Amino acid sequence: MNKQNAVTNKKFDLSVATLHILAMTLMLMDHLWATLLPAQEWLTCAGRVAFPIFAFMTVEGYFHTHSFKKYMLRLLAFALISEIPFDLMYGGTWFYPFHQNVIWTFLLALLGIHLMETVHKKQNVFLYVITVVLVVVVGALLGTLSMVDYYGAGILTVFVFYLFRGRKWWCLLGQITALYWINVEMLGGLMYPVQLGGIQFEICQQGLALFALLPIWLYRGRQGHHSKPFQYLCYTFYPVHMIILVLILNYVNR
C-alpha cells in the first residue's frame, strides 16, 4: 500500500536527458526551416523554444559539473568543431566571420557566471552586486561585438537562468519578465496578428521562446539516462546535423 501511494503521489517531471532530447529536436526543426523547408514557418516558431532550454541546461551544467575546467575545454573543443558546419549552413561558405555558432555564446556566458560565482563566495554583497552589473553589461557587449549566435541577447538569456535560479515564485516571475524583455523588446522580429474573442492583438514570433519555461519548470533535478555515449551524442548532434543538412541541401540544389 505504501509503495502504491508513493507511486501515486509522485509528481510528474522531466529529466535533464529529456530536456536535451527536446531541445535538440526543436533545434533540428528550426534548422530544417533555415535550410530545406523555408516555407514551413511553423518549424522556426517551434524552434524559438530551443535556445532558452539550452541556456538553462548550460547553467545547470555549471553547478553540477565536477570540473569547470574540463567542462569549458569540452565546450571549446565542440565550438571549434562546430564552426565550419555552422558557417556552411548559415553563410554558405567554409569561412563566415560575421556570425559564430551558439557554443561560443555559452562559453562567454559561463566565463561571466564563473566570475560572478567566485565573487559571490567571498560573501561581500556590495562587491557581488557591482560584479553582476559589470559582467552583465560587458557580457552583452562582448556577445554583440563577437557576433556569437543570438548576440548579446543570448548571453543575457544564460545570465537570466543564473540570476533567477531556483523554484521560488519570484524566480519564475524574474525569468518571465527578463525573457519577455530580451525576446520581444530586444530581439523582436516577425509579428503574427491574432483575433481572440473579438479582440485583435499581435504575437511576436521570438516571444514564443517564453514557452521554454514550461518544460524547464517541469525539471526538478532528476538526471535521467546518463552515460558517456549519450553525453557525447548530445555534443556531436550539433555539428553533425548541420553537416547532414548542408549535404542534403547541396544535393537538392545541384
Helix-strand layout with pairing:
Layout: H1 2-9, H2 16-35, H3 41-47, H4 50-64, H5 68-91, H6 102-120, H7 125-145, H8 151-163, H9 169-187, E1 191-196, E2 199-204, H10 213-217, H11 228-252
Antiparallel strand pairs: 1-2
Organism: Suilimivivens aceti
InterPro entries: TraX (IPR008875)
Keywords: Membrane, Transmembrane, Transmembrane helix
Count structural domains.
Answer: 1
Query: Would you count the extended β strands for me?
Result: 2
Cα end-to-end separation: 65 Å
Counting DSSP H or I runs of 4 or more residues, the number of helices is 11
Radius of gyration: 19 Å
Average pLDDT, rounded to a whole number, is 93
Helix content: 55-70%
Largest sheet: 2 strands, antiparallel
Low-confidence stretches: 1-9
Pfam families: TraX
Transmembrane segments: 12-33, 71-88, 94-113, 125-142, 148-164, 171-192, 198-220, 232-252
Protein name: Conjugal transfer protein TraX
Organism: Suilimivivens aceti
How would you describe this protein?
The chain is built from 11 helices and 2 strands, in the order H-H-H-H-H-H-H-H-H-E-E-H-H. The chain has helices at about 1-10, 15-35, 40-45, 50-65, 70-90, 100-120, 125-145, 150-165, 170-185, 215, 230-250, and strands spanning about 190-195, 200-205. The protein has a two-stranded antiparallel ribbon. The N and C termini lie far apart (about 65 Å).
